[in-house]
Prior knowledge:
single chain; alpha/beta; TIM Barrel
Amino acid sequence: xxxxxxxxxxxxxxxxxxxxxxxxxxxxxxxxxxxxxxxxxxxxxxxxxxxxxxxxxxxxxxxxxxxxxxxxxxxxxxxxxxxxxxxxxxxxxxxxxxxxxxxxxxxxxxxxxxxxxxxxxxxxxxxxxxxxxxxxxxxxxxxxxxxxxxxxxxxxxxxxxxxxxxxxxxxxxxxxxxxxxxxxxxxxxxxxxxxxxxxxxxxxxxxxxxxxxxxxxxxxxxxxxxxxxxxxx
Length: 233
């Protein structure tokens, strides 16, 4: 499986427009994909997405984690028509009808983009899952991933700790396709966890079968690591 910095989606979070552009002016040539989340999108708008993609030649992962009634999610996706988006997120917990509505909207308005379903947030631990769903993390993920397979969504966002379970579920369901697996909660050894509860290193996640990694502060606060190939392989 291909790995390395080209498979890292760099999260442009906790940065102002000026800080983002300064970082990309200095290091954008080393990157392939950047993640624009709710904070930057709500603050700077759709034009920011188009500008970053065009100016730096980067693929855009628009991480909006859409979660609402099917009609509202569908209209939200249609509103993004024309933007250079490579990946877009919704919450799998929105249910199968919402997923189907999102897929149709993607086909009509963002036909080149991949739809990713967020499973269990990496900020949630066992206690959180019990409080929210009265089930443990494995049970919640199992239910959400089976729904993802049934809907044939392009990919999922999950902790690296769920990758082995995902492959087991695929085998149990005799799945003919494997959704793209995008893993946040990735840190280098000795990095702080910040607001993540379940984290692992890039090598660990790739070894477990991740297709893409989401990384942010571990890189943006230490950009020298971008040239250290061994950190990502």
